[in-house]
Design a protein that fits this description.
The protein has 263 residues and is of the alpha/beta class. The protein is built from seven helices and seven strands. The protein has helices at 50-58, 77-91, 110-120, 158-165, 171-176, 204-216, 243-254, and strands spanning 20-24, 32-36, 62-67, 103-108, 142-146, 190-195, 220-225. It has a seven-stranded mixed β-sheet, sandwiched between helices. Strand 4, helix 3 (110-120) and strand 5 (142-146) form a beta-alpha-beta unit. The chain starts with 19 loop residues before the first strand and ends in a 9-residue tail after the last helix.
Length: 263
């Protein structure tokens, strides 16, 4: 399904990419998870998008996978797509039999940065409303951040930063997109995981966000696994690290998005 109607903010005549959102409905799911695949804001990794959507669906959680804009688009096109996606799911919540107040966002790597961005910048006007869908609230009820890009300074991922805010970003833009600097008491609860061996996006990114949540007294769950490279997705080849999937399902049940009866 097309994410936008007849009007899409920050469109580029030279680009014909059309953002989409794909539903993976699950019976008995109380809420839904909106999934943003990673890819350094230059592409979208299928195993972190469709792969995650199918896995959530198979485990009793309705998912929506978003194919959002990446480079040459830059901020705020990406976060506009993310905000629109949350609003889209809320608008059609009845159609999919889910509670519009139980919507989580989930992302991996740069997709985690996008999920985190809508979690801390939900109250900022990134684009002019285009239709009835845009009247919905874009604040997620929770976020799931998988080995996510968080920092735009010392622990940054250079490619993600350049693709999002340019090769010579302003100090203010780096601070705006360093998500731990934007956390406050109203930030949604979060589930985070990372590996200590990640040499692409350092584990400090997740630790910075977790620490900011702790200071703001926002509930969170964090798992740091000792082994595994970046971009693991479900991490099926590393059994110890793959435990994150069961931990997430338990957390989604705890916060009321996954039904205890869902299979």
């Amino acid at each position: 399904m097309k994410l936008w109607g007849d009007t899409m903010p920050y469109s580029m005549e030279s680009e014909d990419f059309v953002p989409t959102i794909e539903a993976y409905p699950a019976e008995n799911s109380k809420g839904a998870v909106v999934v943003f695949p990673g890819g350094g804001y230059s592409n979208r990794a299928e195993h972190e998008g469709t792969g995650m959507g199918k896995w959530l669906q198979a485990n009793g959680v309705t998912a929506f996978v978003v194919e959002y804009r990446v480079a040459p688009y830059r901020h705020p096109a990406e976060i506009s797509d993310a905000m629109r996606a949350v609003r889209f799911v809320r608008h059609y919540a009845d159609k999919y039999g889910i509670d519009k107040d139980k919507i989580a966002v989930m992302g991996s790597s740069a997709g985690g940065h996008l999920a985190g961005s809508v979690s801390v910048h939900y109250d900022k006007k990134m684009y002019e409303p285009t239709d009835e869908i845009d009247k919905e609230d874009c604040k997620p009820n929770a976020s799931v951040l998988c080995y996510s890009v968080i920092d735009m300074f010392e622990y940054r991922h250079d490619g993600s930063r350049q693709n999002l805010i340019g090769p010579n970003p302003l100090q203010s833009d780096k601070e705006l997109m360093s998500l731990y600097m934007q956390v406050d008491k109203n930030t949604p609860p979060a589930f985070l995981w990372h590996t200590a061996e990640d040499s692409c996006v350092p584990v400090e990114n997740t630790l910075l966000y977790a620490n900011a949540l702790a200071k703001a007294k926002v509930p969170f769950e964090v798992h740091i696994y000792p082994h595994g490279p970046h971009g693991l997705g479900l991490a099926q080849d590393i059994p110890h690290t793959a435990q994150w999937t069961n931990a997430l399902l338990n957390w989604l049940t705890l916060i009321g998005i996954k039904s205890e009866k869902a299979e």
